[in-house]
């Protein structure tokens, strides 16, 4: 069972597609959000959840004070689950804007004009390092000056190749999961 951990929509159960997703565990989400919230990085933010799956990361941010959330996943089942979950969370957090895009992350980033303060990237393990690198590169112009990017991968995956414009500053391991954080590079 996947659920929202805390905030206005805390304990809300999320729909999980029958296959093709690997939702971030409650333990990992709680640790990530405790760290982000302690630094004031969730409240009043615009959030993107790329490779959203159930939308759990973006919707957790909505529950905890983000004002705008975009969920992006190319898989039809995942996008449908995200839409349903977004409607459910929006009932508990009516002031937040939640949009769902059923398309590849790279395509979304290349066409959007929106900017984000906090971005979660949790691709399926089979997504290549090259594709992840292209997504990170396309993301840089979509970030605000103080943005934070969180990349979640298997502990067997190498560290992402960070493009110019992003500086890694944190790596945390949670069992089989590793989360890297990066910030916008300052000149």
TrEMBL record:
Family matches, as Pfam families: Cons_hypoth95 (PF03602)
PANTHER family (UniProt xref): METHYLTRANSFERASE (PTHR43542)
Species: Curtobacterium luteum
Gene3D superfamilies per record: Vaccinia Virus protein VP39
Catalytic class of the enzyme: transferase
PROSITE patterns the record matches: N6_MTASE
Protein name: 16S rRNA (Guanine966-N2)-methyltransferase
EC annotation from Swiss-Prot or TrEMBL: 2.1.1.171
InterPro entries reported for this sequence: DNA_methylase_N6_adenine_CS, RNA_MeTrfase_RsmD, SAM-dependent_MTases_sf
Keyword entries, A-Z: Methyltransferase, Transferase
NCBIfam families linked to this entry: 16S rRNA (guanine(966)-N(2))-methyltransferase RsmD
Recorded GO MF terms: 16S rRNA (guanine(966)-N(2))-methyltransferase activity
């Amino acid at each position: 069972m996947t659920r929202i951990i805390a905030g206005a929509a805390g304990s809300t159960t999320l729909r999980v597609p029958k296959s093709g997703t690997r939702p971030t565990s409650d333990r990992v989400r709680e640790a990530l959000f405790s760290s982000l919230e302690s630094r004031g990085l969730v409240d009043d933010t615009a959030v993107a959840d790329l490779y959203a799956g159930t939308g759990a990361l973006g919707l957790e941010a909505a529950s905890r004070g983000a004002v705008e959330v975009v969920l992006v996943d190319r898989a039809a089942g995942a996008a449908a689950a995200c839409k349903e979950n977004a409607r459910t969370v929006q009932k508990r957090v009516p002031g937040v804007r939640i949009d769902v895009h059923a398309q590849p992350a790279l395509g979304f980033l290349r066409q959007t004009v929106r900017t984000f303060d906090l971005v979660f990237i949790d691709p399926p393990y089979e997504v290549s390092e090259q594709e992840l690198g292209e997504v990170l590169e396309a993301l840089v112009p979509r970030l605000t000056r103080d943005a934070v990017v969180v990349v979640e991968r298997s502990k067997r995956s190498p560290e992402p190749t960070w493009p110019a414009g992003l500086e890694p500053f944190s790596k945390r391991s949670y069992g089989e999961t590793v989360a890297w954080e990066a910030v916008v590079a300052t000149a």
